[in-house]
Amino acid sequence: APPPAFGSPDFVAALAEVRQISDTRTAEQLAIATYWNLQQSGRRNAPFNNRAVALIRENHLNDAEAARIMFLMNSAMFDALVGCFDAKYHYWFIRPPQADPAITTPVGLPPHPSYPSAHSCVSGSMSSVLMAIFPDEAAELDAMATEAGVSRIYAGIHYLFDSEVGIALGRNVAALALAANLDEVAVLP
């Protein structure tokens, strides 16, 4: 679905939330914004990859099981990014500091539209694959995904609805990845 219309009550409320955080950003919020900015991108997703490796080791999984988990998680992440950037360039939604120049950004402003949050798309997909495989770790993995999304609000570069929709998009893509039959081998002519 599209983001709230620019100037609508929902948009104004979301923008005010980002502005309030920007005006009162705590040291903890700054640390969270900085951590996720440095640790997660389309090229580097250390928190979820590192947690996956730790879970694989803790559960004494073999190499084939490990490869399958890492493949599912990272392929879901890349597919989520395709959907995310398709939506970003379809909706071309303005970022908070572009709508309100008084909003400060302790991290660089990404050079692409706001909606939905790519960090949330990535986190939603990677956490969902891991939650399906390691259900006992679901609460921790969900908290990681939520924090990654919120970090972008703390950074002043996303609205809450960007994060919520991004996580939902990532979770939907992960469900498709998990439903795929990886044992079927396509034979190319």
Number of helices: 8
Please tell me how large the radius of gyration is: 17 Å
Tell me the distance between the termini.
Answer: 39 Å
Q: State the secondary-structure class.
A: mainly alpha
**Number of DSSP-assigned strands:** 0
Q: What share of residues are in beta strands?
A: under 5%
Succession of helices and strands: HHHHHHHH
List the uncertain runs. Answer: none
Any idea what the shape is? Answer: globular
As a percent range, the share of helical residues equals 55-70%
Oligomer: single chain
Average pLDDT metric? 94
Q: Summarize the biggest pleated sheet.
A: none
Task: Kindly list the characteristics that best describe this protein.
189 residues, mainly alpha, 8 helices, 68% helix, globular
Task: Explain what you see.
This protein is an all-alpha fold and 189 residues long. It is built from eight helices and no strands. α3 runs antiparallel to α4 and α4 runs antiparallel to α6. The chain is globular and about 50 Å long. The N and C termini lie far apart (39 Å).
